[in-house]
Structure formats: structure tokens, C-alpha cells
Amino acid sequence: ISSDLSACSLTVRNNANITVNPNVNVTLNGPLTVSSGSFTLNNNANLIQTTNTNNSGNIIVKRNSSPLMRFDYTLWSSPVANQNLYSFSPDTAANRFYIYDEPTDQYNSLSSNNSFTVGRGYLIRVPRTFSATTPGVFTGIFTGKPNSGDITYGMSKSLNGFNAVGNPYPSQINVHNFIDAN
Fold first, then answer.
1. Of 66, 64, 79, 150, residue with least CA distance to 120
2. Radius of gyration of the chain measured on its C-alpha atoms
3. ∠ CA(81), CA(85), CA(87), 5° rounding?
4. Tag placement on the chain: N or C end, fewer CB within 10 Å?
């Protein structure tokens, strides 16, 4: 898909392989169903759903990091359900996946066997294969059922009230609207 598309719903079948080019919006008023084949959102492509809907089947969402070097970290949040941390970044050392703990104001290491929690931000170190001197872009690949509808994520405030959260949708959010609404 090379230009913006709006539809009531979309079904991928007959082993079709749909790829949405960067900076293209697919806007649906209903569900996305992937019964066979694939639906891939390239970096900066968006799946925008205007109603609370129940998607089915898995999609692939590709997101690029900023340029990073071997020992750098970045925060990630999954736009799909049940994405395993290690499958997302298999070349990251297993002990370099972290979640922020508000009561202690610390990042705590967690097992790479865990899956992303919808809406939570995860601090993940760049893969071990990256250069220590030349920045490179990591393409994170999320695979799963796309998140949609209203998503609630409980925050805590026992110390400073800082929380690591992330965009749970396979589309960009307007940070100004997000801040104003919260």
C-alpha cells in the first residue's frame, strides 16, 4: 500500500502479503483480520482504528530506533499483544532488559522470557552486534495481534510519580494531545 487508505474493515486472506509503505496511514472503522498471509507496517506506517474493535490474526510492525551504539539503551513499547522481549531483540544480552520500578526509582532487570505488557515502557540495550564507535539504527520487529481500542495502564505514585510508559498502538500518537489529555 503506497498511499493512504480508508476502509470499514480489512481482511487478508489467500496468502496475500500486504506491505504498508513508510508514512502511509491505513485507517479502519472496524477490525483488521489476517486469516492467511501477512500484513506488515513498515517504519512510520500507521494502522489507525477509529472504533473499539476486536482484531484477529497477527501483523508485523517495524519500528526504527534513533542511531545507537553497542552499549546504548532505548525505551520500547509493543503495538501488538503477547510480543516476547527476547524475540523482539534476540541479539541483546539476556540480562539487559529492564522495567522501571516507581517506588524505588530504579530500573530492574527482568527475564527476557517475559512478554511486553501493553502500555508499559521497557528499557532494552542495543544488540551485542552493534558497533561501539559507529551509530546504527535498530529495526525492532513486533509480531502479534494489533492493539486497538481504549487501553488502560495503571500508574503508581509512591515516590516521585515517574512511570515508564509507551505507545501501545500500531500508529503514532500526537504527543501534544496526549499531554493535554493527561
1. 79
2. 17
3. 95
4. C
3-class DSSP state of 86: helix
d(CA 115, CA 34): 22
- Listed as own residue / partner, the contacts of 104-109 with beta carbons closer than 8 Å and 24 or more positions apart are 104/159, 105/159, 105/160, 105/162
pLDDT per residue as tens, the chain (182 positions): 999 999 999 999 999 999 999 999 999 999 999 999 999 999 999 999 999 999 999 999 999 999 999 999 999 999 999 999 999 999 999 999 999 999 899 999 998 789 999 999 999 999 999 999 999 999 999 999 999 999 998 888 887 779 999 999 999 887 788 788 87
